[in-house]
Amino acid sequence: MKSLTFSNRLMMLATIMGITLLVGCSKDRVSEVDKSSYKSSEEYMDAHKQAEQEFVITQDGTSPIVAQQGTKVWPARSKLMFANGSDIIYPYTVKIVELYTPKDMILYQMPSTSGTSLLTTAGEVRVRAFKDGQELVLKPDSTWKVEMPSATPMANMLTYYGAVSASMVNWINTPVGNFAVTAYGYTAEMAKLGWISCAKVASTAATATFNFNSTTDNLDNVVKFIYFPNLKSLKQVYTQTASDLPIGESVKIILIGINASDTPYTFAAQNTISKDSTINVTLTVSTDAALTAILDGL
């Protein structure tokens, strides 16, 4: 038998390496395909989130609107106008959404963060006014009084307004204002209609990062939240990395995936932030009732 030339040996080696690389890449592709995938959760969340309450105002009085969870709003037609500056006449409609629990904030996907800062929040409320289907605004230098219920109100709470963009909210303390503590809970003057939160920046020191990883599930469409019970703060994670997590804080982690059949899958864990960590995730099949129980337990 003739011996292989040097060039033939090189060709054979290259062929073997190519086959090995191809098999390896194929395995990687199969691994990704084999992961469970989930659709957007928007439709599921919308079906389970707090409903918007409507109140038709035919005349202004001294008594407030009282929403289902106790939010009080004192509407005033004289302080409203169309976006073009025109005055309005009766009747008009006030719409209110109340979010006072981590569950309701998660289902509405309204975390309590301002930039990279965590906010300690006592509640998030949306107050809007409409006339003939058009959303109204407050006149310059006008306010509406609002009260939020609380059995144990905290001092130094400020008015934060929710700026929503591309389904993400950022809470900003502009215009500057504060919530005063009352026997009922908190009271403030809303300088603009929309989302308002009774909140303050949570005191934090050194921070760490969580990376979410899964060998079983594609996490791209999975909603991820981290709740800080001691800080009364909620963070939503929009990628696979959660940063600026305060070291020393206990957290509750909840991930929710919705499959093609609208069945919820969940991952729940408790942790104490001590250093940069990887959170290994495996979602398990759940039910509406079981998911509700998890969220009620936060």
Structure explained in plain terms:
The chain has 298 residues and is of the alpha+beta class. It folds into two domains: 44-201, Chondroitinase Ac, Chain A, domain 3, CATH 2.60.220; 205-296, Immunoglobulin-like (Sandwich). Helices cover 17% and strands 42% of the residues. It contains four helices and 23 strands. It has helices at 6-34, 42-48, 102-107, 288-296; strands at residues 53-57, 65-66, 72-74, 80-81, 92-99, 113-114, 117-131, 134-135, 137-138, 144-149, 158-165, 168-172, 180-181, 185-190, 194-201, 207-213, 223-228, 233-237, 241-246, 250-258, 264-272, 277-280, 284-285. The relative contact order is 0.15. Residues 9-30 have low confidence and may be disordered.
